[in-house]
Amino acid sequence: MKKHLFPLFLLLLGANASAQQDFFALVGKDTPNIVFNDFRALDLTNGTSGEKIFTSDSSAKVFSQTRNGSVTEDKNAYNNSQAMNMATLAYDSYNNNLVYMPMFSSNIYVLNAKTKEITLVENNVARITSCDINSHVTRMATGYDGSIYAINNAGTQFLQISRKGNQYVVNDLGIIKDDASNGKNSFTTIETGFGGDMIADADNNFYVFSASGNVFKVSVKELKAKFVGKISGIPENYSVNGSAVNSKGKVVIASAKGAPLYEVDLNTLQAKQLAGEQNLHIYDLASKYFANDKALSTNFFANLDIYPTRVDDKYINVNVNDKTVKGNLTMTVFDLSGKNVMKQNLSIKDGSLNQQVYLKNLVTGAYLVSITNESGKILLNKKILVAE
Fold this sequence. Notes:
six-stranded mixed sheet; Secre_tail; Quinoprotein_ADH-like_sf; signal; Secretion system C-terminal sorting domain-containing protein; 1 helix
């Protein structure tokens, strides 16, 4: 895996990540069958549930992207925003959206976590039928490039959901095949590779945590799944149904069978049980974090920030309102390899600054923005996504 060359200070950021609403669960009812109950925030510091963002009984306001208007859905159908069978969830932190798909439908739904409005993306790319378990999309995660990625059970469809302006576009990236070294641990068979969830790393690779506890590393470029190993430290009959990276860079896994949450070290695949709620039926997990990410956002001053984090028009705003921040500031932008691609001097007066900065010559992709004072002290590090 490629080594990142970010400055040394970035290696220390993980411990400073602040507790916020950035970890989510797709939770089912207390029943042996898959029955959707709600999307909710999780507080992993104490392992307890937070706000229920959207439930099976919520009033759904659905806007069709294709039809450019509001739609009324049949709640008894497989393809509606509150369908009974759901097993995918991803968090688009740039737009504060939860993205998900009903298991028996090709429809994609984008739920604004703040307004609770839902955008329906009618997806003609995926080929999903209720009676074909191979076609069911059960794994989903946000990639480091800001797009949403999803994989069906058999790996025959690898979907990329990208935002182009105000529209979502779906692409089929192709068929994922087993690496030649996998042997009996196949990514494409029910016993070893089906179900579960996936997470992304900072190199835009994906790790699929199958229901059986097997872990596969999926290369987007090669469209191959390489068996990494099997999770240890969980009960033998534990069904892994959700996975997401926490603020420490560890992977949290969850089960639809009402079992405890576990934290897994991606390097050793050793799991340890987390404290908190023990009987949640979790079908999927989602967060804003990535494995092997040296660019975790850190803000050392409450009244210093940059926005937006998703940049559609090449401009970002730097805002300071803190009299303890003195002298001139420097804003430096790093690409994913750690290369300095842009530097901008900022003039602050009496602890106040509100300046718009043009991100010239930056191509589409993820970047780290760092702001330092005259002595070189870091005041803010934040990841942004420059979109088309």
